[in-house]
Design a protein that fits this description.
Number of helices: 10
Bound molecules: aspartic acid
Strand content: 15-25%
Radius of gyration: 18 Å
Distance between the termini: 16 Å
CATH architecture of the largest domain: 4-Layer Sandwich
Number of domains: 2
Number of strands: 12
CATH superfamily of the largest domain: (Glycosyl)asparaginase
CATH topology of the largest domain: Glutamine Phosphoribosylpyrophosphate, subunit 1, domain 1
Length: about 350
Amino acid sequence: MKYLSALLCICLLSISCNSNNVNSENQRSVTETEKPDYAIAIHGGAGTILKANMSDEKEQEYRLALNQALDIGESILKEGGSSLDAIEKTIHFMENSPLFNAGKGAVFTNAGKNELDASIMFGKDQNAGAVGGVTNVKNPISAARAVMEKSSHVLLTGIGAEQFAKEQNLEIVDPSYFYTQRRFESMEKAKARDVMTADEKHGTVGCVALDKNGNIAAGTSTGGMTNKKYNRIGDSPIIGAGTYADNATCAVSATGHGEYFIRYAVAHDIAARMAYGGKSLDEAAREVVMDKLVEKGGTGGVIAMDANGNISMPFNTEGMYRGFAKPGERAIAIYGLD
Ligand code: ASP
């Protein structure tokens, strides 16, 4: 039943995301004239997000935040800004909100710390940057972008990444900045049980965008999993797992049980199915999230966009905070059927 409703929702959202096209068949042969000037999609994590467990007030808070995030990215793209700028600034906003498991709202590790991961990738040249396990960088997505643009590396971790962020004059905060009562209590509960509920496994924010120059990009930022141990790093800063972008295929940002997304190279698998299998964006994304991951037991979802501005947002959980905007179009959704 849960998969049926998720599937139905994907159909609904996929139809709305491609409303420029007459039907889903046309999605596979989108013409230049149908291509929007720009497009942006975001997620704020997937998981056991049920209307029954959400107050109207909380739901409005999430919807407002998702709309505000889209406003930021859309205004940059509308003005002709790059997909990378739109993604960085949109994710900043989500990182600064306590609502999402990234930046300010990051979950706690078993040792009572916040260790943040982020990555960004540009579809034009497939340049990429990422940071893992940083504890004092206010906006890890900017550190990831700095790694991409100002270093000869792709992934920096721990104190080295923090040192690099400082040298790049990024905002450094005391680790206590990331303290929120809600996330601290979740960690304490998870510790007491020593097992995580499905909800505690999920979080993360992400953004994919197409700019007026025709370049797509993807970015992802997360606090990872509640109660994580041993400096665990998830899929979010792993290029090809939690984030991927190539103008020739698609831009992807994932959210879900990171270990599965790493093992099945989820973001790259979607691009590979398009490149080698001739699949459309939506076919490729759904095959990976709704078939392969479900079969393997990996819960979560992705937001994916191709260079024609098509968007696909499949998820195999009850809900995923998500939204998209194109000229004259916008949608926000949380649950399986809205
Ligand atoms: N994928 C993230 C991780 O495993 C968590 C999430 O998206 O919920 O670190």
